[in-house]
Amino acid sequence: MGFSWLEKTKSLLLERITAHRLENKEVKVLVKTLTPEEAIGEPGRRDFPIIVGKERMIEATFLGTKGQAFTDSPAEFMGPLKDILELSLTSNKERALYTAALNAVLKHLNQAEKTLHCRDDEPEKCARQMALGLIREWGKVKVGLIGLNPAIAENLVRTFGVKNVRITDLNRENIGSRKFGVEIWDGLRRSEDLIRETDGVLISGTTLINGTFDPLWELVEKDKKPYLLYGVTAAGFCALTGLKRICLYGRDENK
Questions:
Q1: What integer pLDDT is reported at residue 157 of this predicted model?
Q2: CB 28 within 8 A of CB 79
Q3: Would the pTM count as exceeding 0.85?
Q4: Are 160 and 140 in contact (CB under 8 A)?
Q5: H/E element holding 193?
Q6: Domain residues of the chain, as ranges?
Q7: What pLDDT, in 10s, does the model give residues 181-237?
Q8: Which option is the CATH number for 122-246: 3.40.50.11590, 3.30.360.10, 3.10.310.40, 3.40.50.720?
Q9: How far apart, in whole angstroms, are the C-alpha atoms of residue 161 and residue 193?
Q10: Which stretches in the chain have pLDDT values below 50?
Q11: Based on the number of CB atoms within 10 Å of its own CB, is 32 exposed (0-12), middle (13-18) or buried (19 or more)?
């Protein structure tokens, strides 16, 4: 199958590091797991995956600059940047560590933006504005959501109509249930159905972490579907690859 898209970004990241003469410095990358409150504050709704305990946010700090990533396999790491580049990226844990560090490094170099998650009422505002922006750009078409974000799902249904929304997820507790009138399909089995049946696709950045992005992207490219990766996780990845991303309320400031 060859290297994954995430693996390919290693050489692109190394180019940036070398260009700024960082390759031989003893740079420390500290990745820590955030509590839900540290990650997204106190949103009004309580059904976000990070709040119900299905995902965690990890945060990398690189020369004082921070980058975050969602994962179901949080881990901590501290060491030189070269060790991050040597990770095999064959597990969710390693992909999460690398992606959080990638976000922090590129933000430090001013080559990525919105590497910190929005907070409090901003996720709800983001979902509402995202849905309205998509219907303006794509029209009232059928839309697919890969990776259940409840706020985005609810606003897509409200904006496009329940019959025009398809959703896949990997959480076994969600699969087969109905959210906002839409049946949640198994992301491992029915992503091809979702892409085939829709006219535009929103793809969670966590697909980079759980290893499902590459086959999804092949389907999107094959069918030439409009797409957007959403969320903070994909910040550095999209900055390096040029793939389209939406993250309306992500933050840039260091905490």
A1: 98
A2: yes
A3: yes
A4: yes
A5: helix 187-197
A6: 5-108, 122-246
A7: 999 999 999 999 999 999 999 999 999 999 999 999 999 999 999 999 999 999 999
A8: 3.40.50.11590
A9: 19
A10: 1-2, 26, 39-40, 44-53, 255
A11: middle
